Amino acid sequence: MVDQKSKIKNQRSGNNTSGSSAMARLLSSAKTSIVTFKKGENVNGIVTKLTPREILIDINAKTEAVVLEKDKKILKRLLSQLKEGDKVEVTILNTESEMGYPVVSLRRFIDNLTFKNLEELKKEKKPVSVFIENRTSGGFLVLTDDGMQGFLPNSQISSIENAQTLIGKKIDAIVWEIDRPTKKIIFSKKAMQGSGEFDDSVKSLKVDQKISATVSSIVPFGLFVTLQTTDGKQIEGLVHISEISWEKVTNLDELYSVGQKIEMVVIGFDKDSKRVDLSIKRLTNDPFEEKAKNFSVDQKITGKVTQVLDSGVVLELHPSARASTELSRMSSGQAVEGFIRKEKIPPTVTYSVGDSVTGTVFQIDKKRRRIVLIPVLLEKPIGYR
Prior knowledge:
The protein is of the alpha+beta class. It is 19% helix and 36% strand.
């Protein structure tokens, strides 16, 4: 009897030992791929669920990671460009939330994907559908179908005259410029216009023709205007800041306003930009031509230093200023720009703004609209050229 009990006890003991050994072997042979992460780390994953309410990513953690995206525009981009099963790279925002799951971001990944797609479209010059959201002084804020915001300048629209009717509409445009660091995207509608269409629009215009145009946009480098041809077509034009006035202009906003009508003259046609080059200053004669008559080569004159540059010294000259005492009585409106080249200034001589300098007229430079002088020296320094 005892032997029978001992036998049963030994069998049970053997079974427990065998079961424990089997479990141990199973655990030791199981290879888990679950890993731990750090906040801010970028890891690869696979999209397992993609809905407006929930986006889940398998990153080999204990549980699937959750994408929390409150920005509706970015969420729209995620939903339009991704699908379940896609491989993605996420950024860890929280290794484990209060609910026990990792929280991740797809912003970096979707930005890289979007810009890569846009760069390919730019390279291939394929049209992109954009929605005109709003208008600014320089153009329009637009939104692509995948939720990426960009800018459509006034200069890149075929017809500025119809600009107000574009708001709230969808148009096709070309990706014109991309700046990844600033996430700046510039679109162009005009780039889709063929050169033949532009040539047909400007066939009624000629160089030196006087026209009336309306200011559509004021930018640091000039005025964009809308002009109407004799056959009723609307064309864009540009008055570069150098063509505004014969005198130097620094602030165009003080001189002009959007909607203002201005007389100007056609000076050329820019087929690449699909616009007409215009000038306001050429409606009048260059006053320098008249002022320059008061100067002659070898004439001695006194001027006041207004700028000291690496290339030389700029002066304010007056036709009848024969001496520095008389210079102070001259009107600045009658002034002409003078210039002394650096190589004509002795090494031992320095000038400062406000100094009165007497020089001899060496050249009347009509192209640069200035009088070139050689300083009058009391004695010729050694090595002076």
